[in-house]
Design a protein that fits this description.
Histidine-containing Protein, Chain: A, three-stranded mixed beta sheet, 6 strands, about 45% helix, globular
């Protein structure tokens, strides 16, 4: 028994070509934005619980070492740690104190790098200045806690004569910019030193 060859009419072929052309046009007209949305974004590098515990332990050790050092124990030096990288912030009396604090921190076990965010003090402050600075620091911290963008981060705040210094580690540049904006809007702030770092 012979099988008859299957034939395609001119109308069928024309319909097939038209449908193919439409599909090709739709695919080519997709914007870069749509293509980006369709792709799966790479997950951000996460910090494990173990890493967080290690960072907290290193921070504690560095603070203890600074308090035990005769040259820097009198300063309120802020310490933040992220994967072995220690950031030191705050206001100190001299460059000698800055260098000493960095040296002390670098000698602590587990510290892979020390980033200096400390500022050398200029001029003198009165008791009134110190009270005002303390109030400003409290206001800044309260504003951070109330803000949805930055409230989840441990941002250290130090104030000297209205100059607010921010140190710590955050997720992205948007949070860094937002922190600066929040501080600038607080009455009494004369300057902002934003030394926040992006997490790696």
């Amino acid at each position: 028994m012979q099988t008859k060859p299957v034939g395609f009419s001119t109308e069928c072929i024309a319909a097939f070509l038209a449908a193919s052309a439409i599909l090709l046009t739709v695919g080519c007209n997709r914007t870069d934005s749509e293509m980006t949305k369709a792709s799966v974004a790479a997950p951000a590098v996460a910090t494990t619980v173990g890493t967080e515990i290690d960072s907290a332990l290193i921070t504690s050790k560095v603070k203890t070492a600074l308090l035990g050092d005769q040259d820097v124990k009198g300063f309120d030096i802020k310490v933040e740690t992220r994967k072995g990288v220690v950031q030191l912030g705050g206001f100190v009396d001299s460059q000698i104190a800055v260098d000493r604090a960095i040296l002390v921190a670098s000698r602590v076990e587990g510290v892979s790098k020390v980033e200096n965010a400390m500022t050398v003090k200029t001029g003198t402050t009165s008791v009134g200045n110190e009270v005002d600075d303390s109030i400003l620091t409290t206001r800044v911290k309260s504003a951070f806690i109330a803000d949805a963008v930055v409230k989840g981060f441990d941002i250290s705040v130090v104030t000297r004569k209205g100059n607010v210094q921010l140190t710590g580690f955050v997720e992205n540049q948007t949070q860094i910019d937002r922190a600066t904006s929040i501080v600038r809007d607080i009455k009494g702030v004369t300057a902002v030193e934003n030394k926040l770092k992006l997490k790696k």
